[in-house]
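Preliminary data (for renewal application), copper (II) ion complex.
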Amino acid sequence: MRRRGQRAIAVTTTLSLLLLLIHPALAADPEIDRLIRGPAGKDWVTNGGNLTNQRYSTLKQIDTTNVAQLKGAWMTRLKGSGAGGKYSFEASPLVKDGLMYVVTGNDDVFALNAKTGAIIWEYWSGIDQKISTVCCGWVNRGLAMGEGLLFSGQLDANFVALDMKTGEVKWKTPLEKWENGYTITSAPLYYDGIVYSGISGGEFGVRGRLTALDAKTGAILWRSYTLPGPGERGSETWPPATDHSMRGGATIWNTPALDPDLGLIYFVTGNCGPDYDGSMREGDNLFCASMMALKAKTGEYVWHFQQVHHDIWDYDAASPVVLFDTVINGQPRKGIAEAGRTGWVYILDRTNGTPLIGIDEKPVPQDPRQKTAKTQPIPRGDATVPQCAELLPGYEKAGCIFDTFWETPVLMQPSGIGGTNWSPVPYSPDTGYFYVPGTVRTSAFTRFGDKYMQGLRYTGGSQSAPIGSPMYGTFTAIDGTTNKIAWQHKTPYRVGGGGGSSVTAGGLVFRGEPDGNFLALDAKTGKELWRFQTGFGADAPPVFYEVDGEQYVAIATGGNQLQGSAYGDAVWAFSLKGQLGPMWPPPAPQTVAGPTGPIVAGADAVKAGANNVEYSFAPARIRIKTGTTVTFTNVGDLPHSATSMDRGKWDTGVLVKGQSKAITFAQPGNYYYICLPHPWQYGQVIVE
Ligand SMILES: [Cu+2]
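Predicted structure:
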């Protein structure tokens, strides 16, 4: 009996295998699955180009010999959607069969004729403009498509599916509530009937996770948490008998990658919460700041690699993971790479999560108050940005990466915004290089502790750039077989949180600059071959497609508040037959940290978020007489504060929209201040 039973099972298994072989087209959308398993060509149907996130196109009509003739084919303004100081435009447009789909920072979606730029339909998200749990700009990093639907994660934590033909909402699934600190900013990934979405909110005491939804119905198939519950894998890296891991962050800011042959889905996780205070969360704090692999069908854990143990620097892993195949020491290897905020590229074997080139655990500075980890993983190879800060006047200490801090500010590089922030990193199988945008900026790290309250900021400290400190960027080609620099450019502005790039078989890397310039470089040598002024901050990653035999390059230009670039609502497409010339340059981003604008004498009222510039004080610089009372009012959409850079001196506390606080300046002095939730928002009060 037993033997017969086993035989029956064996026969059934063989039969189902045969059925699978005969009917490989059981997939819900075989066409999209086929397109995203291969390299991108005529169409660009998923955020990273295909399942690898390589952002590599096989199109080569535009190449190193003719790119100098490239001109604008069309430019379309998206009716003011997402154009304003609180927004960033970070999406890669998707293109299929001559139609383009693009999502703005307000989660509005537009379908365009990819040949002419004409708008075909519009979806206005109607998201609540009072959402107060967006940490770093209103953004949507892009869409996914499959089964005739477009998928979009919204800032209100709803996940929607739109009809590709009409823009009509087909289903809508809440993944969480924004009021509890959760938002969605990442582009989803569609494959084989499932849509995968990350969740954001690492600055608001949330619990990170990857959610898998049924593409047809929007039903949630599973959630895989990136923070362990009691007794679960990784719970030993949090203090026992506490619930710190339940609000410990580890959110997913960007699109996963997927290897269909291995059946694994890959992604990276963000900072630990609270960001800058590790005092109550002794241990490595898995799975913060980690690369992770799960079974794509079930969400079951397969492996992880933690880039930063017990993170206290906001060293999110935020750039999308990239899958690539390479040869190392004569052996073919399946690789996975990710460019961290630390300035390193982490290169692993994607079958098991072990280092491909070498990553060494090395001792690092210690502070028992912060419960710092004894060692940190240091990749062999080159960092793309400096990892030590210089001492500046007014500060007691400057340190290098992984140095420690407590209540006295310590200067460090890279800052917690990177290195490489959300910006994707393309990989060319032709050159074997990763193209890594980096931000060079000093941060003054301080810990001050925060009490956890649901839906409110929970960062435990801050990291503003010191007044007068320089800020710029790097763009680096990293050899994927050695993790060493092949070539590197210093860029005039920060590009680690923008400066999106993509690469083609025509031997070109295209990348944007926050001053509006869009550039083409020789992918092998880095030589600049073309540059075009788009008129708006060019921070989103470009894409490539073909319509009627003509190759196009497209980029969303709408600025980025992390980069301080000029906002807008434009999508540009370029081709060799294009006729449009460049625009006037927009205002350039700051290259030195601190408040800007004229000093207004006698002003006793300062507004945060005025004039459609959310992250600003107006006037930003005032001169008053000793004893003057200044009223700070928040007229923006987000909560802001005015907090003395030397935090002990004065602080309005966090003001919600419409709230005011008066501060009397009884002592002469030069007071610089920041908004604590947005430490790149500066003001100055000169008291005489
Ligand atoms: Cu603010």
